[in-house]
Request: fold
Amino acid sequence: MATIEAYETKAGRRYRVRYRTPERRSTDKRGFRTKRDAEAFAATVEVSKLRGEFIDVAASRTTVGELGPAWLGRQSHLKPSALRPVESAWRVHVEPRWSQVAVADVRKTAVQQWVADLGGDRGATTVIRAYGVLAAILDDAVDDRRLLSNPARGVKLPRKGKKPHVYLSHRQVHDIAEASKHPVLVLMLAYCGLRWGEAVGLQVKHLDMLRRRILVERNAVEVGGVFEVGTPKGHKHRSVPFPRFLAELLAKLCESKGPDDLVFPGHNGQFLRQPRVRGGADAETRARDSWFAAALQDAGAPRVTPHDLRHTAASFAVSAGANVKAVQRMLGHSSAAMTLDIYADLFDDDLNAVADRLDEVVSEQIVGKTWANG
Reply:
């Protein structure tokens, strides 16, 4: 239980409340002008401890800047490619605005204003990521009893606009491949749906030529000019089939290579860097800076990125009769719901097929019976 003590100051008698935190640490709060005020405070402390709502006043004065680096250090579950933009969001957007603010002084309206100001000259993805960093730091403050609730939660965020998918035709894909410095890689991306890092990380031993399967077991992602090799996205391995016409091309590409050699090596046998397709640049500049951009220009194809070829792979699979579960497994999505959310437009024909089938059933069982009884 809390105890109350009186003490003398130049301004007169004051009262101090001594109490223990839920962790059994002794602390006090002083400066109460009347004993009644001190007793009221002591009562609120005991009630808050019983309700599990106790907040250490001293701990609540900790600043966001003090908690941020420790929070970043705990994000070891993130892959380097995912951690880098989070670190950037902290350094560029969160730290300059919030580092000197005590967590107890963060207000929801202030967070909302910050989000609105960021949205004035930043994209929705950048704003949402920066907000997520601040909100996560304050979540930890709640867990550590520095705050009773997170003032950042419930803030209205900008909506991310969906970029329309560009689906290439078979002819366009083959034209790009023929004009490309890496034709087999282009075909694999467009027909197997691998991510760039999964494709350039492939070793010869990951190709099962008899079963025509690609074993996707690792991912090579360039982070800050250095390649980080790890597991595929979601840490899930998968087996992806490839069409027969790719078998001969892959076999030829792997001639005289050992099991651990890269299927698509870059300069000096290192990982192949992802080509850029720069927006706003003229065609000649894009072609000079990127072998992929040059291939697009020579083939007269729409402006797409290597990653966009995954969308084409999905469209080819659906047009060949694959259901959503098969497309999910091929692309390595975490769930079929995610695949449907991304590629809902590719399954519109399925809805038409359902309507047509219902029409056939009604015609056979209802209309036919009506005529027979007529």
